[in-house]
Write a structure and sequence with these properties.
Length: about 1150
């Protein structure tokens, strides 16, 4: 049997170029009886650790490498020379651990220092860090192959000798057989050079996909990468179907004349012996108190922290006893023992330190997140603010002494302060030792279909239709083809759709792009490149090339620093209250506040953390929470699984009718009492297993995991163990089986109680603020949402509906943030578009020095136009900031327009000198002539406000139509969130933004934002409809939109538009009144029912009024529930020739 090892292979981590997944790769390698395999992704080492361990699982020797980009000059030079490549390819393989570490340094330098279009290394790096690395000359784009194609023999030999001087006997010439003429020429020359220099040859295949039939999918992948389609003549293409994972026999046939090219691959594999160090943690060294070792120092900190917390702990109980004190102390000793034994004291001290720093800088920190809230030590060290014993939280859910793994403490910080905490950690442990963590976006099922459809040049609407038929529940394209009849039929009958889906299945799930994890931070005991390759994020931050799970596997400390806007809102509210002379300790609120629970029970929870969705509001109204233990389950229950399972309804019924609560055994009462007998939390499952069935905490945790992951064989095994243990505790066989079945049913939906408790506390705190301090709380929310127009509209509307007046922005009264004035909210300058922080800070500084601006002329003479330019002033004017200065907006805008164009040029010439708005120095301000102008029209003022603030402030243009809108549709942008996908809806809205795109066929279509008084919803308008209505859409007039609801993965609604009508046309029709006069002595009584039926068949917008006449008397009856088309009234006369008259009149329907 032929033996051969692939030494040049691109996995999916050669982003949008490689299409090889690890498990199928090694499965195929085993079929080929290959003993080893390499990974050589383009310019990165993203996947090498996953590759390494997966290979080991399959019994295959992993060879760690990279196809690097090498600059012809210094990697530090960022220039392009005509006729010269910016970077060549070179394959580097790690022979041993020293070589692996050198590879980490080389590839990190390529990204951190040498990035110019691609991450580049150079010869200097190779000379400094080549120990333990062997080199292959790569593909056509290699430096030596490139010189061969140029035909410069002298240059070729020069390059070979240069590489020999670096690598010596670790240099190999790489032969490939991929059907390309250029490669054949390269092979011939390399064989000659091999004989001349004694450099061994190796056969490779530059694998980019697994099987030959996947070549088309790989070409599509390249199209996705470059934004091209398969019909584009200039697209990137491999021009061959040979770049797949060939069998040893195929390689042997290709190189039958050079068998050593195959045997040498085995020698290379024997030379490469990297071993990964796992199980060792790389904590930075910490300073400890003199005379104490790390564990003793840690223990002292914990006991000191316990003493500091004891007063608060005691005050939370009605009666405090010595027994309770012992309970806390015993728990503390237990946790201390576990943490010291597992070696994680450093981890806790590091987290406690940066949290203490945050608090010392008045950066708000969340009360806890995830299972860490189950640790008493975390509470004592003030890492969390949740007493785990008070809330019956389990330490082992966080750190299990029988299943040792790195603790995972995620911390929520105020968004505004998060970067300062990261900066503190970076400075404390060293910039070389701290980095953020990479994450990879993958091509999900729908995205893969859309990407492939674009690359194939298929019509967008057709591809979009197919993609929408794939639901998240389908778990992939193949499952969708199997389960969804429409897709199945199209797949079986339409070759184009089959091609689309077959290729999408090949790329489905592949990594698509790399980005910086939103929260992950890694801290090392030494320079990170000793452990992990680095790269740059889009904001120039240093980022690991290994993702989070790999970081943990290789023993580096990983923490999540999350930015939580709610903490900022709460902190801003407390500060606003302080400004009013009200001191509020947000961390010590009474948890039995009646007004807070009344607010929660009413469902008035917009702006309340985790409780503001429509579904959650409905749940609150049904549940009527009356204690904190009712809030915690809401966080756990409001998820798709529990909602579908019936758990939620069961919980509500039992809460409102305690007589429904039944227990199979009294032992369950102590565990499930707080949740009315319903198993909601993972911790409850663990406790049931321990208390009822004598499980060890390790087995209880394993049972929890098996339930959440639905592992059948494990669940069956645990069932026997559970029943046996329950019987030993006096539980009947029938009860034991029932209990296990119940927790099995609910177990897969079980939620982390520690997390529910921590986030439940934040929910309660925000509800308390809204219940007791509504005005400052809304002001804080508005400040936080200034960049979210949809939310601004929502909360401004809510404020006004709640009777809270919002004062307009004012150049003398407004601060940067939204503030409180006489229990009203003053609009903040940060809410004005195009006015950045620098401009606001400058204006406020000048205002502070002057004690306020007395006129617009003075404002212009004192403010530096370089900091507050024309665009800034126009936005301020349109927002109404200068309205109190005695000028009309038209006048202010005219002055700005006339003076600032000239001023910009003057300021540039006088850059060293601060200039006013009129081009004079601040010490010689002069007056300006005020133009005599009429004020802007009402519609112009509203349009200006919308431009400056993102929404209509004074009055929404749809406000005058409110009553009419209610008559024609029950929907608005807010209520669309309550609809189901595919619901037919209509909405009256104004277009607030239109993004026009051109389809592959050259047709125009559009994505538009539809705005009404409640918010904004996105809509898609396809080519035919868009072509008919393009002028109407861009006319800023109210539209009556009919369409179908679509929902994004996060539940956000969109409208697929079917019809567009000017709402004014509907208003005109509604302004018609059809008066039907019934002459009672002529009209047959029996015809009244028939009349109603005919009216209902004439559906339209005109109102109907009946007039009954008899013996000179008249009675009028408006038909409020019927509207008809006034142009079809002749139908009435056709049906009723006697005793009926019809008249169409105009009526005033707008104020």
């Amino acid at each position: 049997m032929t033996e051969f090892v692939h030494l040049h292979l691109h996995s999916q981590f050669s982003l949008l170029d490689g299409a090889i997944r690890f498990e199928p790769l090694f499965d195929l390698a085993n079929q080929y009886n290959m003993k080893a395999c390499s990974i050589t992704d383009h310019g990165n080492m993203y996947g090498v650790i996953d590759f390494y361990f997966t290979a080991r699982q399959f019994g295959i020797k992993p060879i760690i490498g990279c196809e690097a980009y090498i600059s012809p000059r210094s990697r530090l030079e960022q220039v392009r020379i005509k006729g010269e490549d910016n970077a060549y390819h070179i394959v580097l393989l790690a022979m041993n651990n020293e070589g692996y570490k050198n590879l980490l340094k080389i590839i990190s330098s390529a990204h951190l220092e040498g990035f110019y279009y691609v991450p580049r290394i150079d010869k200097e790096l190779l000379r400094a860090h080549n120990e333990g690395i062997l080199c292959l000359t790569a593909c056509i784009k290699g430096e030596i192959p490139n010189q061969i194609l140029k035909g410069d023999e002298k240059s070729v030999k020069g390059k070979v000798e240069e590489y020999l001087s670096i690598f010596g006997d670790r240099l190999f010439f790489e032969l490939q057989d991929n059907g390309l003429d250029e490669q054949r020429k390269i092979n011939e020359t390399l064989i000659d050079l091999s004989r001349f220099y004694g450099v061994p040859i190796v056969a490779t295949n530059d694998c980019h996909y697994l099987r030959k039939e996947e070549a088309k999918a790989h070409e599509l992948l390249l199209c996705i990468q470059t934004g091209k389609t398969m019909i584009d003549k200039d697209r990137l293409s491999f021009k061959s179907e040979e770049f797949y994972f060939k069998s040893p026999d195929e390689i042997a046939r290709a190189f039958s004349n050079y068998p050593e090219a195959l045997s040498n691959t085995l020698k290379v594999a024997e030379m490469c012996n990297v071993t990964m160090d796992v199980g060792t943690y790389h904590f930075p060294e910490l300073k400890v108190e003199e005379g104490l070792d790390l564990n003793a120092h840690f223990e002292k900190k914990c006991w000191d922290g316990f003493k500091g917390r004891l007063g608060r702990i005691q005050s939370s109980y009605k009666d405090w006893t010595d027994e309770m004190n012992r309970k806390y102390e015993d728990r503390l000793r237990y946790e201390l023992d576990v943490i010291k034994q597992t070696g994680f004291a450093s981890y806790f001290l590091i987290v406690a330190d940066f949290i203490q720093y945050a608090k010392s800088q008045e950066i708000p920190v969340g009360p806890g997140r995830g299972s860490a809230a189950g640790s008493l030590i975390a509470y004592c060290l003030r890492i969390t603010d949740i007493d785990p014993i008070k809330y019956d939280l389990i330490f082992e859910r966080f750190l299990n002494p029988e299943r040792i793994s790195m603790p995972d403490i995620d911390v929520d910080f105020c968004k505004k302060g998060r970067e300062r905490v990261i900066q503190y950690v970076t400075e404390k442990y060293g910039t070389d030792n701290v980095a953020q963590i990479i994450t990879f976006g993958t091509m999900q099922s729908k995205g893969a279909v859309r990407d492939v459809g674009r690359a194939l040049g298929m019509p967008y609407a057709e591809v979009d239709k197919i993609a929408k038929l794939i639901t998240s529940a389908d778990k992939g394209i193949a499952k969708a083809i199997q389960d969804e009849p429409q897709i199945k039929e199209l797949y079986q009958t339409d070759e184009r759709i089959k091609e689309l889906l077959d290729n999408a299945m090949v790329i489905e799930g592949l990594a698509r792009h790399a980005s910086t994890h939103a929260a992950g931070i890694v801290i090392s005991n030494k320079h990170l490149t000793e452990h992990v390759p680095l790269c740059r994020g889009k904001n120039d931050e240093t980022v690991t090339q290994y993702h989070m799970k790999v970081i943990e596997k290789i023993g580096l400390i990983k923490m999540d620093f999350l930015g939580l806007e709610t903490l900022t809102i709460m902190d801003d509210t407390v500060k606003l209250l302080k400004g009013q002379g009200i001191e509020l300790d947000i961390d010590n609120l009474p948890l039995d506040d009646k007004k807070t629970y009344e607010l929660l029970s009413s469902g008035n929870t917009s702006g309340v953390f985790q409780l503001e969705s429509r579904g959650m509001k409905d749940l609150l109204v049904k549940l009527k929470p009356s204690k904190f233990d009712d809030i915690m389950p809401l966080i756990a229950l409001y998820r798709p699984g529990p909602l579908k399972s019936g758990m939620v309804e069961e919980f509500i019924k039992r809460k409102n009718n305690p007589s429904l609560v039944k227990y199979e055994t009294p032992l369950l009462k102590q565990i499930l009492d707080d949740t009315y007998g319903v198993t909601i939390y993972q911790e409850q499952i663990m406790k049931i297993a321990v208390v009822l069935a004598n499980f060890s905490i390790k087995d209880a945790d394993a049972l929890r995991k098996a339930m959440s992951k639905k592992i059948p064989e494990q669940l069956e095994s645990y069932k026997d163990q559970f029943i046996k243990g329950a019987l030993a505790n006096g539980v009947s066989l029938e009860a034991a089986k029932t209990i296990y079945d119940v927790i099995l049913r609910f177990g897969e939906y079980g939620f982390n109680k520690s997390h529910s408790t921590a986030y439940g506390l934040i929910a309660y705190q925000t509800a308390y603020l809204k219940a007791h301090h509504q005005v400052p709380y809304y002001a804080a929310i508005l400040t936080s949402e200034v960049n979210n127009t949809d939310k601004m509209i929502q909360y401004v509307t809510e404020c006004r509906e709640s009777g809270i007046e919002i004062l307009p922005p004012d150049i003398n009264e407004s601060e940067k943030s939204f503030t409180i004035v006489d229990n009203k909210i003053r609009f903040g300058l940060s809410g004005v578009k195009n006015v950045g922080d620098a401009a606001i800070d400058h204006i406020l500084s000048v205002r502070g020095e002057l004690g306020g601006f007395t006129s617009f002329t003075q404002f212009c003479s004192k403010v530096d136009s370089r900091k507050a330019n024309k665009k800034v002033l126009e936005s301020l004017a349109k927002a109404g900031c200068f309205d109190k200065m005695g000028l009309k907006r038209s006048q202010v805008l005219s002055i700005i327009q006339e003076k600032l164009d000239k001023l910009q040029k003057r300021d540039q010439k006088n850059g060293h000198q601060q200039m006013d708005m009129f081009g004079t120095t601040l010490t010689s301000a002069q007056s300006v002539e005020i133009p005599d102008l009429d004020e802007l029209s009402h519609s112009e003022i509203l349009a200006g406000e919308k431009e400056a603030l993102g929404f209509y402030f004074s009055q929404h243009p749809l406000k005058i139509y409110e009553d009419l809108i209610r008559q024609v549709t029950p929907y608005d942008s807010l209520k669309l969130k309550e609809t189901d996908p595919s619901d037919d809806v209509n909405i009256v809205a104004i277009v607030n933004g239109c993004k026009e795109i051109v389809t592959k066929k050259g047709d125009r279509m559009a994505y538009v934002n539809l705005e009404d008084t409640k918010g904004i919803v996105e809509a898609i308008i396809f080519p035919d409809l868009y072509a008919k209505n393009v002028l109407v859409i861009k006319d800023d007039k109210p539209l009556f939109i009919t369409g179908t609801v679509e929902k994004a993965e996060d539940g956000t609604p969109k409208i697929r538009v079917k019809n567009i009508t000017l709402f004014d046309n509907i208003v005109k029709e509604m302004g018609k009144k059809v008066i039907i006069t019934i002459l009672c002595d002529e009209f047959m009584k029996n015809d009244l029912r028939k009349l109603r039926d005919v009216l209902l068949s004439l559906g339209g917008k005109a109102s109907v009024v009946m007039e009954f006449r008899l013996n000179g008397e008249k009675a009028t009856l408006p038909l409020k529930d019927i509207r008809i088309d006034h142009t079809k009234t002749d139908m009435l006369l056709k049906h009723f020739s006697n005793g009926l008259r019809v008249e169409v009149a105009d009526e005033t329907i707008l104020p």
